[in-house]
Amino acid sequence: MMIPFRKMHGLGNDFVVLDGRAADLGLTPRQAAGIADRHFGIGCDQFIVMEPAPAGSDVFMRIRNPDGSEAGACGNATRCIASLVAEELGKDRVVVRTIAGELPVERLPGGLWRADMGPARLGWRDVPLREACDTLHVPLSLGPVGDPAACSMGNPHATFFVDDLDAIPVREIGPRLETHPIFPDRANIGFAQVTSPDHIRLVIWERGAGLTLACGSGACATIVNAHRRGLTGRRATITMPGGDLVMEWREGDGHVLMTGPVATSFTGQLDPAAFGA
Ligand SMILES: N[C@H](CCC[C@H](N)C(=O)O)C(=O)O
């Protein structure tokens, strides 16, 4: 049985998007992993399925990494899915629901979308961490990095602030930090170089996906952790290999606003049975 898919990305953080709203697609984790495989499948950083909208939202977004793990947040995909549903509904503002909450997203001029990614969760149990500790200074170091700040955006993030981002061996230390026992659910690992009070360079080793060109929830965690550390204001542009996101950690409710582009690369049809049982 052939089913339609859409290949999308946000700053090169790419997704295969399927629509499971009319009927459960019945995909197995093995089929999802096969579709996400860059050699034997279509290839993507995350595998996204749209599911029926719970009350108070316009769509439910199910997020899986290529390793099959489910995630509670995906900022770049949130903008992409919002743009699809907004077009369908003829609206400029929609609500995307994930397992972590309701995310209002609005269309801005110039093809940009601003997502309210909800509040940053700052407690050690929120991240989560293995034991009680100050999430502003997590007792962890490896090679040239150490002393990260940690928070959750519905998924776990640790941010290492560095002086020279280009000197960090991300591919070597990223996977070791992702799976460090201090993170019982693993973690997305951000390496951030603050270049001014309103600009940060960021590279992310993503949980369950590895090195990506951009990470929306990672950018959210970075602006939060940078401001908590007194390194930036509440607003900053975050430059990742795939491009820029404009970020704000809003005063008052502590929600994180993320503004950036969306793109469709191509659409097609696929047969799930071709990717295993
Ligand atoms: N790898 C992440 C999910 C995708 C996050 C990223 N693509 C984004 O844009 O936020 C995790 O396991 O929590």
UniProtKB/TrEMBL annotation:
It comes from the Bacteria. The keyword Isomerase applies. GO terms for biological process: lysine biosynthetic process via diaminopimelate. It is found in: Cytoplasm. Pfam families: DAP_epimerase (PF01678). Its main location: cytoplasm. GO terms for molecular function: diaminopimelate epimerase activity. One of its GO terms (cellular component) is cytosol. It is an enzyme of class 5 (isomerase). Keywords: Amino-acid biosynthesis, Cytoplasm, Isomerase, Lysine biosynthesis. Its EC number is 5.1.1.7. Pathway: Amino-acid biosynthesis; L-lysine biosynthesis via DAP pathway; DL-2,6-diaminopimelate from LL-2,6-diaminopimelate: step 1/1. It catalyses: (2S,6S)-2,6-diaminopimelate = meso-2,6-diaminopimelate. The record marks 157, 206 as: Could be important to modulate the pK values of the two catalytic cysteine residues. The active site is at residues 74, 215. Substrate binds at residues 13, 46, 65, 75-76, 155, 188, 206-207, 216-217. Homodimer. Belongs to the diaminopimelate epimerase family. HAMAP family: DAP_epimerase. Catalyzes the stereoinversion of LL-2,6-diaminopimelate (L,L-DAP) to meso-diaminopimelate (meso-DAP), a precursor of L-lysine and an essential component of the bacterial peptidoglycan. This is Diaminopimelate epimerase. The gene is dapF.
